[in-house]
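fold-stage: in
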Amino acid sequence: MKTKNQTINEMRNSTKALLLCGVFASVWYTALNIFVPMLYNGYNVASQTVSELSAVGAPTKTVWVILGSVYTLLFLCFGWAVRIAAAENKHLRKAGNLLLLNGIVSLFWPLAPMHRREILAAGGATISDTMHLVLAALTVALMFLAVWFAAKTLGKRFRVYCYATLVVFAVFGMLTGIDAPKISVNAPTPFTGVWERINIGAFMLWMMVLAALLWRREDAKIHNENKNRRRGQTKLVTSRKALRR
């Protein structure tokens, strides 16, 4: 029969494995943004948004949805791991809940694709485009809030890093927002893809940093619990020897 400490250690090891999903999700999404555009002849990473890779009629729509579902699954696992690792830390638990909610929202992206720019400019927008904008705004808000609450945990250096990440979100989110109306009229947006991907990159990096810090914390807890258990066992053996004398 397993002891209480063994059960706790197994749970912590499971949490560590799930935390790695944050790293895998970041690497996977970054890879998608590198390789999928190569399949779209004429697509420009600098001037076009990520959403245009899955737009109605885009040649990469199907592959993006399929591969993107892997990212969503990894993201959900990471959000759950953050929530578990938070334990009694209410701010970190809120961050985990927000990440989970963000992952749930991501499940709806395939149901609300945008149309290509030329279709939008010709007046072909539908409810799908409206829902796409709603999902985009909700996703950004959840990202911002998750980083904000996580900033209140894990020490001063991480807090400063989180605030720097939020500044990046604000600056490049504003630049992306300025370009947004131009997309619907098929006007030039020479750097909107750059602005958006800087924000995405900042969030991917933040996820990896958070995953690494929480993984190290869980590992330290396992080490300390094992050390205390061995110390207790040593004291018990010593006590028994003393009684025999």
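fold-stage: in (second)
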Amino acid sequence: MIFVNFLNGQILLIDKPLYFTSFQAVNKLKYALINKAGLPKKFKIGHAGTLDPLASGLLLVCT
């Protein structure tokens, strides 16, 4: 996988687990990409809509 493409703007689909907030799921992904792929710390990432913490499901994440 080429991680440089994440800087150009991508849509990622994440299966958000139960009891995680959307913010927590995005933060875990952000720090995983920063630490594993060597992306810059000011890497922008965010979700396209909030899921309830008591719901699991598909979360759209945009870079």
